[in-house]
Amino acid sequence: MRSLRIILVLAGSHLRVLSRMRAIVAVLILPGIVLYTIFTLIFAGPAGRPFRVAVVDLDQTPASRKLVEMLKANDVIVVRREDDNPDRPLLTVETAKASIRRKGLYRVAVVIPRGYSAAPDMLSRSKHKGVDLYFDETQPMEAKIVTGLLQMAAGRALFERFGAMLNLDEESSQSQQGNTAHEQHERMLIKVNRKGVSIKRMSIAAKHTFLAGLVPMFILFGGTGAARGLLDALRDGEIRRLLAAPIQPYHILLGQMASALVVAMIQCYAMYTYAWLVFGVAIWAISGGLLVLTLATCLATTAFGMFLAAFCRTSEQLDAFGTMIILAMSAVGGSMVPRFVMPSYMQPLGLFTINGWSYDGFIALIRNEGFPGIALPCLVLVAIAAGCATVGSIVLTRRLRSHPMDE
Amino acid sequence: MPVLNVVDLHKSYGDIRAVDGVSFSISAGEIFGLLGPNGAGKTTTINIIATLLQPDSGEVSINGTAFSSASAFKRRIGYVPQEISLSQRLTARENLMLVGRLYDLQGGELRRRVGQTIEAVGLVDRAGDLVSTFSGGMQRRLNIAGALLHKPDLLLMDEPTAGVDPQARAYIFQIVEGLAAEGRAVLYTTHYMEEAQRLCQRTAIIDHGKILAIGTLGELIQRVKARREVILEAEDLSPEIIERLVSKLGEVPWKMQPVASGAPGARLRRATLNIADSTCSLLQVLRAADQTGIQVTTISLQEPNLETVFLELTGRMLRD
Fold it and tell me: Which domain holds residue A149?
């Protein structure tokens, strides 16, 4: 109980000091808000990014494979296995639909039925059954675009088969992109049976992805700043009086971390509130999960700051080293560019970062996955916090005990 | 029983012996000086006693409480670090409230002690001001106040007057003397001979981590057989003239140096004669100078001091 009281006393003192440094408070909060605004505005429009389309090929014939090849030729990333993981099973109709509903790795799934090759296009008239297209109902535009891409793919396949005989050229097939309405099968090369997958969640937009990405990045910088305060206090001798008092070095470290945690939470909620007020991000609909996720993220970033400080002799070293590491983590973890647009080999790297897990947790909340959706990210973040805090505390405590100052 | 007992303390950093077999004790109400140049081992010694550093070997106890029981030990110590170990962005009162809470003072008792301590260091009018607005001397006084809140048996003061003006220094001396008068033991490190001489009942001369001598000023002077110095200034002094002068006084060591003078072409020189108490008086020196034909401009008598003692013990001046 005494330990807790001492930690709170020290944390309160740090917060009081911080509250008197208005410029620092502004620096902690404003850059995040400014960058969030800029990124969200830049990417708010229909920005071009490669489509991920799940393909379930039940026909497994040269004709069906040709259609898939042509789809790929239109810069579509084709996902054939669960989680886009080569070690996982091939997608089935059910797993593809489930993935659209839950994970958001892709929003459209094309199912090529058995017997497709017998009548691969509308030239076969009534024998042609077409393909099924399952799509995220909250993102109908993507289904329309994929329908157009399928027409292009079918056109290319047809062109290769009949070429000059049908007198079709690339331009004419592309011109059919606009005719992608649900009711206009008779004017298509391939019949597309669009089937919406009902999803009770918010759609993921730039305002969500950048909020999810930038929040951990800026609180990582905040956490390093708090750890910088510890190194400065060590250098200036301010910590000497504390060490001479009847308290333990870990009280000092935890006091610093507790105040950094509070500051990080304030940083997060300042950005959430801004996102809610300016961009309409519905943070209140996910408030419970968001609080838990934010706490876990702030714990991890605060402990990470202490971890970095433990291995830096001076605050200048911490600034340089910390900035480099945080920028690298942020780039890989999806703070600057959403992870879903990264190449598939890059995406797993995000899971080695605090940003990546925090991002995944936030997106899970936006997808209305609730507490089950954030359980794993929170567990990993708390584990990172525990690991960093333990190593950081051991190293810093040893430093405080052995060389509290340079004589 | 002494308040502080330090026995055979050792601390090395690699090949450097920062503290090498230091032993001393301090009684209640005593101001004990640790005098030595920068790098002599004063701060390392005080940091070990303050539990900030682990010694390689040796024992420290305060009123019988051993070094090993750190928490109880720390509660008996008031530590005044060399640096201003205060938050510049807290007020004087807030800083002291924080320190008091670390020593488990709470509520009315904490407020009362903070009020008393602020009054004791003469900062009542500035208690609500941020420390960053304080002068150097005021910050030093508050630095001392932080060590007094919990009423320690022993005060460790590590060069508490570093960088302050003479007026602030005199105020700090008053505070330290007041604390000793209340019965607290004070360990006071300094490299200013004047401070040790003015404040300390006993002084330990430390250099290269070793205590060279301990005692009162009289004991130290006695120990090194330090002599009084007669400083004589005159024009046209030469070694030959000084030799003639000292032959009339008996054999006394002497040294000579030029003295800068404002007048162009002036050849004023200073001779310092080291004279044993029994050798002669100032009057005898003046008579001998007159007989030698020296036109004395000024003459003064310098009693032996800690500087002299340090010079005798180490062959160096304190500030070399």
Answer: 51-197
